[in-house]
Amino acid sequence: MEVVIVPDAKAGGELVAQALAELVRRKPDAVLGVATGSTPLPVYEALTAKVRAGAVDVSRVRIAQLDEYVGLPAEHPESYRSVLRREVLAPLGIDEAAFMGPDGAASDIVAACQAYDAALAGAGGVDLQILGIGTDGHIGFNEPCSSLASRTRIKTLTEQTRVDNARFFDGDITQVPHHVITQGIGTILDARHLVLLASGEGKADAVAASVEGPVASVCPASALQLHPHATVVVDEGAASKLKLGDYFRYTFANKPAWQGI
Ligand code: PGA
Questions:
Q1: I want to staple 230 with a disulfide (CB 3.0 to 4.6 A). Which of 41, 49, 101, 224 is the partner?
Q2: Are the beta carbons of 177 and 69 closer than 8 angstroms?
Q3: What are the tens digits of pLDDT across the range 74-97?
Q4: Which of 39, 87, 161, 162 has most ligand 1 atoms within 8 Å of CB, for mutation?
Q5: Distance CA 131, CA 236 (A)
Q6: According to CATH, what is the number of the domain 2-254?
């Protein structure tokens, strides 16, 4: 995989937005896999700026959701569908009809998970999937020891993830659901390009384990090592525990200019 160390989160957002814009110019109806959380926001902001400047037309793209809370009504402000409406669809001017996501309010969650995997396959698969990483190495909501072959399914959140996410629920952990639907690690690996972003020293251990540690379900993001086109975009803080930091800087600085990420 390629590791790109950027000066700050804004630069990472610009780099990834550039890759998204190039993808959409090449394939106007591309399926973009989007993640929630704080880390991808600079990507969405940079892409929105490109759309508003007329540099790329996203009117035909489709948007695919990575994960969702179970039990929150879709219109709850912190359901990931609502978050993505606010942070991705509205700024980019993308119609709700172009949005695919699992139904966290379904009465039959197992069927909802299978339906979502089928919908992704029916759409031709995800072209570029944006990922954050948890402090425990999770991707999507695949917590440690998730099967590396898993498909979309229900998961139970760890206490740490609920603590991390309480900030979106007025700091009140009791409001954070215990259960989620998440694309499985196998589902995520089906995307044609994976781009994982991380910012800040709090993510440094998880990033080092994912990039330089063994492929192991105890660190779900290490599954990116199995993917033929995975890019890890980290700021200096998140890169601070990488032993091969200088090597990654050197190779990125010297790669062919036409190659992109
Ligand atoms: P964050 O979340 O971007 O808000 O840190 C990442 C994640 O938990 O996957």
A1: 224
A2: yes
A3: 889 999 999 999 999 999 999 999
A4: 39
A5: 18
A6: 3.40.50.1360
